[in-house]
């Protein structure tokens, strides 16, 4: 056999061994005892294919709707002003206006359609508005001290029809269906488990469903532009179990104000974030997640003074879990300099 052929065979053998090793690692048993301290790092595993409150599906363009875990915007001195009008350029009162800041901010247009957001910094912001009669935007505004007011023009928009079921495909009545970027836009499912949301900004959006006794489910939905079209989305809610514990600072003191969420092990894409979907620790560092689905799970917490921290893997069953402990990690500061292409 020629030397080149021998090298090709050897390389193929190494790839096969590496794949088998990965398979063994990624299918490692998840049923471990509940943790008492944070010593592990995030675990990556193959992405699941079924959308549920334990894992959710996305479309090819879902990265645009994926929630980013970013720091809150600093307080600034700038004000963004604007007006909401209809297709005939008449002012629209009472429209919900959403600013794509971090975190997103919401206000309501005045009688003359005007609105404003203060304490902003100089950067680009998306703005959209919605009322019962239509939707407008997003309009992108590059804000500075001389920026003109923005006009958001409403027109009839598309919508979604969400079906919420349990693990046995039975409809769940009374579940709350909401858009992540517009939490005030929500509907409750009927006896058939159906909720309809209309006049939603077109494109990729995140929709959630929640109900007592179940873990929240999140999915990416592609909202159509046409007012005559409604996209259908099914969300499966899994029965949940209460999980509680305490968050500690690196020095061992109980830590208040940490946002905590339980994430299923083996889900590559995480659509839920601690600030949007988790709970906050109290003055004694205590937290309770009311409904965590069964299976291998990890705690994930964020706090403004420390680095995001992932806990050890543990198994959730039908019995409530208490006494978990998670110690936040010290964070580092990353600094640099932005230069032009010519240096």
Characterise this structure.
With 343 residues, this protein is mainly beta. Helices cover 8% and strands 41% of the residues. Strand 5 and strand 6 (134-142) form a beta hairpin. Residues 1-67 have low confidence and may be disordered. The protein starts with a helix and ends in a 16-residue tail after the last strand. The chain is built from 2 helices and 21 strands. The strands form 6 sheets. Strands 3-2-5-6 form a 4-stranded antiparallel β-sheet, with no helix packed on it.
Structural class: mainly beta
**Tell me, what's the shape?**
globular
The largest sheet, given as strand count, sense and whether it forms a barrel, is: 4 strands, antiparallel
Helix content: under 10%
pLDDT < 50 runs, ≥5 residues: 1-67
Q: What fraction of the residues are assigned to beta strands by DSSP?
A: 35-45%
> Tally the helices: what do you get?
2
Rg, alpha carbons: 24 Å
Measured distance between first and last alpha carbons: 52 Å
Sequence of strands across the biggest β-sheet: 3-2-5-6
Total count of strands = 21
Q: What is the H-and-E element order? A: HEEEEEEEEEEEEEEEEHEEEEE
Q: Compute the average pLDDT.
A: 82
């Amino acid at each position: 056999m020629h030397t080149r052929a021998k090298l090709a065979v050897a390389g193929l053998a190494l790839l096969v061994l590496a794949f088998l090793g990965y398979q063994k690692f990624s299918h490692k048993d998840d049923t471990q005892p509940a943790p008492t301290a944070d010593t592990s790092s995030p675990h990556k595993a193959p992405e699941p294919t079924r959308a549920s409150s334990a894992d959710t599906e996305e479309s090819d363009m879902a990265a645009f709707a994926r929630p980013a875990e970013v720091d809150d915007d600093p307080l600034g001195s700038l004000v963004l002003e604007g007006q909401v009008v209809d297709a005939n350029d008449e002012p629209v009162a009472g429209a919900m206006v959403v600013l794509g800041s971090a975190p997103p901010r919401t206000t309501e247009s005045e009688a003359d359609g005007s609105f404003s957001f203060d304490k902003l910094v100089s950067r680009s912001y998306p703005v959209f508005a919605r009322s019962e009669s239509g939707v407008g935007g997003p309009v992108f505004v590059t804000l500075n001290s001389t920026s003109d007011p923005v006009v958001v023009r409403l027109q009839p928009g598309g919508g979604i029809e969400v079906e919420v079921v349990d693990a046995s495909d039975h409809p769940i009545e009374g579940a709350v269906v909401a858009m992540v970027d517009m939490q005030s836009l929500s509907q409750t499912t009927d006896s058939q488990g159906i909720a309809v949301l209309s006049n939603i900004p077109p494109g990729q959006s995140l929709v959630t469903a929640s109900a007592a006794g179940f873990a929240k489910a999140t999915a990416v939905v592609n909202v159509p532009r046409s007012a005559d079209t409604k996209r259908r989305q099914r969300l499966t809610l899994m029965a949940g179990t209460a999980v509680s514990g305490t968050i500690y600072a690196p020095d061992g003191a109980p830590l208040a104000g940490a946002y905590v969420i339980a994430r299923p092990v083996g889900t590559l894409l995480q659509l839920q974030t601690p600030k949007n979907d988790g709970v906050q620790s109290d003055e004694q560092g205590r937290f309770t997640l009311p409904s965590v689905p069964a299976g291998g799970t990890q705690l994930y917490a964020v706090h403004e003074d420390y680095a995001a921290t992932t806990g050890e893997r543990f198994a959730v069953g039908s019995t409530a879990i208490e006494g978990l402990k998670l110690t936040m990690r010290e964070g580092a500061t990353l600094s640099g300099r932005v230069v032009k292409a010519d240096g």
